[in-house]
Fold:
Amino acid sequence: MKVVILKTEDEVAQYSADFISHSVTTNKNAVLGLATGSSPIACYQKLIQAHQRAQLSFKHCTTFNLDEYIGICPDNDQSYRQFMNEQLYKHIDIPLLNTHIPNGSSSDLEHEAKCYEDKIKAFGGIDLQLLGIGRNCHIGFNEPGSSLSSRTRVKSLSNDTILANSRFFKPEEFQPSSALTMGIGTILEAKKILLIATGEQKALAIKHCVEGPISAFFPASALQQHADSTIVIDEAAAQLLSSRDYYMLEEDRRKQAS
Ligand code: F6R
Structure:
């Protein structure tokens, strides 16, 4: 697990955009696993700028999103399909047909989950999976207690997550309480993983993810078992890490060596 601690949110966004750009420029057919929520928005803006300024092309890429709410249609403004279209896809050259998001309004969610897994396999697996982290340490919508080898399936959202995400919904709007999400086992099969987190409200989750024991109660701690995962965070999110200085020393060494 590589831990990269940067001063500001903007540096975290630039680092993650450069990381994704590198993956796309070294493999124009890259299969990207993407996330929604507030954490990746600044990174997506930088990718859009790189597309506009430096002709970074996503034409031959394929994407698979982590999750989608159950109970709202893909054309609903609150769906993760619309989030991705607005925050990224409509500003870059990726054909929408290459972008995959679980269909949370399917009448057969179990079948939809299986097809999603099959589709990921048919594309040869995910090359780079981008993740945010919930304050309760969830990744995707794998809430505390999720099996560390779980696959794409329906999950009920915890009260913590419903409360945290209520900031995106108007009081009169329907807020979903379940989602179709890639499982932790699905996520761990990605060749590379990049998790981003900023702000002190994520500090405890990051502490469990990086330095806690591996436990289903802290789903992101499963990333400790992945051979190529990078955790990129700002100083506020890093404040509870015991080995903070060591991670910074390691990153300095990596920079000098490259
Ligand atoms: C989003 C997702 C979630 C979020 C997490 C953090 O697709 O799977 O795990 O990454 O809830 O959300 P933010 O970034 O809004 O704090």
